[in-house]
Amino acid sequence: MTDRPLKVLIAKPGLDGHDRGAKVLARGLRDEGFEVVYTGLRQTPDMIVTAALQEDVDVVGLSILSGAHMTLVPKVCAQLRDRGLGDVLVTVGGIIPDDDIEPLRQSGVSAVFGPGTTIREVADFLRANATPRDA
Predict the structure, then answer these.
(1) Which of 94, 82, 75, 78 has the alpha carbon at shortest distance from 25?
(2) pTM for this structure?
(3) Which of 34, 51, 55, 134 makes the best surface tag, with the fewest CB within 10 Å?
(4) Please, are residues 123 and 111 in contact by the beta-carbon 8 Å criterion?
(5) Top-level CATH class of 7-128?
(6) For every one of its 135 residues, what pLDDT tens digit does the chain have, with 9 covering 90 and above?
(7) How far apart are alpha carbons 6 and 124 in whole angstroms?
(8) How far is CA 11 from CA 3, 59, 94, in A?
């Protein structure tokens, strides 16, 4: 087991320009003891996966409000697997219709966090389900 905190990449895929929630989550997870990398707005799946690889993260958290989650999220999950990061936990936060949650899980998403989810709930889920990559 490692002594380092879990490392989380927070990314905003696609053309979604609403980043307040992602920034609040990033700060909240830091306050909870996680190491957090925030990639900023308008990231492509390739940019997100490259950052995850370079930063050697344990978790990729995708914040998406644009409605493009059924296109972008499966691409991120597939590219993570293709680049040897299939063990990285993937979560999604945002406005996700209930009917889309199961297909997202089938693509590789471990959890979908909707409006009203607390930072503590996210932190508890990550602690319970993420595995440090160097463990």
Answers:
(1) 94
(2) 0.95
(3) 134
(4) no
(5) alpha beta
(6) 457 899 999 999 988 888 999 999 999 999 999 999 999 999 999 999 999 999 999 999 999 988 889 999 999 999 999 999 999 999 999 989 999 999 999 999 999 999 999 999 999 999 999 999 775
(7) 12
(8) 25, 11, 12
